[in-house]
Amino acid sequence: MLLVLLLVPLAGGLACAFLSGRRADMLAAATMVATAVLTLASAPWGGKVAASLQVWSPLPGVALGLRLDGLGALLALVVSLVGLCIVVYSADYFSLQNREHAEEEGKGRYYFFFLVFVTAMLGMAMAPDFFQVFLFWELTTVCSWALISHYGSSEAIRSGLKAMAVTQFASLFFIGGLLLLYAQTGSFGFADVALLSPGARAAFAMLLLVAAWGKAAQVPFFTWLPSAMVAPTPASAFLHAAAMVKAGIFLAARCLVSTGAFTGWVAAAITLAALITLYVGLAGYFFADDLKRLLAFSTIANLALMLVGIGLGAMGSADGLEGGLLHLWSHSFTKTLLFLCVGAIAWSTGVRAISQLRGLARTMPLTAAGFLLGALAISGLPPFGVFWSKLLILRAALAVGGAWGWATAALVVVESALSLAWFLWVTHLVLFGQASERARAGRDPSPAMQTVLAALTGLALLAPYLGMPLIHWIARGVA
Question: What's the whole-model pTM score?
Answer without folding.
Answer: 0.95
